[in-house]
Write a structure and sequence with these properties.
The chain is α+β, with helices and mostly antiparallel strands. The protein has helices spanning about 15-30, 60-65, 70-80; strands at about 5-10, 35-45, 50-55, 85-90. It is built from three helices and four strands. A four-stranded antiparallel sheet has the order 2-3-1-4. The longest helix has 16 residues, at about 15-30. It is globular. The two termini are about 15 Å apart.
Amino acid sequence: MEVRVIATLQAKSEFIDAVNDAVHQIVEASRQEQGNLQYDLHRDLDKPGTFVFFERWASADALEKHNATAHFKQFVGQIDGKLELLDIKRVAKIA
């Protein structure tokens, strides 16, 4: 079953540039993964330093494999301690 993820990251004000760089770096590698159907990065127009990922994965297994990749682990290290908020929602389309 397809899994969708909505991940919102709010950078601490002093780390906006660093988080911006990190979120941009993970996009292309993630899009190339087997089981990835969509991996889009957005920025909140009303809140500087807020980034939102919309992701679609073919299965929960594909998402788990993504979370275990070297580029994802590197990304987590790059943003560690630099966020005010990290909100990750796993959702399924129902209509």
